[in-house]
């Protein structure tokens, strides 16, 4: 249940574009021959946010990733313990069969019980996996909503036409002048108020 694998995919989708605003008619005209021009001739105002920084510095992400890691580890421990118990029971059964310790009826009954335990373990594995996926999806949705909600408020004054997410090399080139990551993270963390359930689930910071 690797934290990056769990969270990275949804993070790219979470930082969505904000609602389109009107073109900035007051934008200065730019010489089309100038390589140094930073302003789009149409007045389109664009910014971007680094996804990796959101994941590592937004407190909500850090808190929830700890919860998911703990839940994932608990699932692994539970399944591993039950698997070991079943393997030990099966090995003991085989040993007793070789020693002719059971009647035919007893052996058939024990074997049927072991098969049922194996079926139950597979069902438990599926159920716990589904629960983890549901929890992860819940986190994905909460993260997306929190970012989009904040960006809508943030953009009331900034008036960006587009706010893009930058993850790895999904943007072939991005001028750092359009990077608003630090502002967004600072605003997100300031607005973040963990629920009582979240606060109780996350270990107290030393």
TrEMBL record:
SMART domains: OmpH. One of its GO terms (cellular component) is cytosol. Residues 104-145 form a coiled coil. InterPro entries: Chaperone_Skp, Skp_dom_sf. One of its GO terms (biological process) is protein stabilization. SUPFAM superfamilies: OmpH-like. Pfam families: OmpH (PF03938). Keywords: Coiled coil, Signal. The keyword Ligase does not apply. GO terms for molecular function: unfolded protein binding. PROSITE patterns: PROKAR_LIPOPROTEIN. Belongs to the Skp family. PANTHER family: CHAPERONE PROTEIN SKP. This is Outer membrane protein. It comes from Segatella maculosa OT 289.
């Amino acid at each position: 249940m690797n934290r990056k694998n769990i969270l990275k995919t949804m993070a790219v989708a979470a930082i969505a574009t904000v609602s389109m605003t009107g073109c900035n008619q007051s934008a200065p005209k730019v010489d089309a021959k100038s390589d140094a021009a930073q302003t789009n001739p149409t007045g389109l105002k664009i910014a971007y946010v680094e996804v990796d920084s959101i994941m590592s510095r937004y407190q909500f992400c850090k808190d929830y990733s700890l919860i998911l890691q703990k839940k994932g580890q608990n699932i692994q421990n539970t399944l591993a313990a039950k698997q070991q118990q079943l393997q030990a029971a099966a090995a003991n059964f085989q040993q007793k069969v070789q020693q002719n310790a059971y009647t035919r009826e007893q052996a058939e009954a024990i074997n049927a019980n072991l098969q049922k335990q194996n079926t139950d373990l597979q069902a438990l594995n599926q159920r716990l996996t589904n629960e983890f996926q549901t929890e992860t999806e819940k986190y994905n949705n909460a993260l997306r909503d929190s970012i989009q909600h904040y960006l809508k408020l943030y953009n009331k004054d900034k008036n960006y036409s587009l706010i893009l997410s930058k993850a790895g090399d999904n943007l072939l080139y991005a001028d750092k002048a359009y990077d608003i990551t630090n502002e967004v993270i600072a605003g997100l963390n300031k607005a973040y108020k963990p629920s009582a359930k979240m606060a109780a689930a996350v270990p107290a910071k030393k």
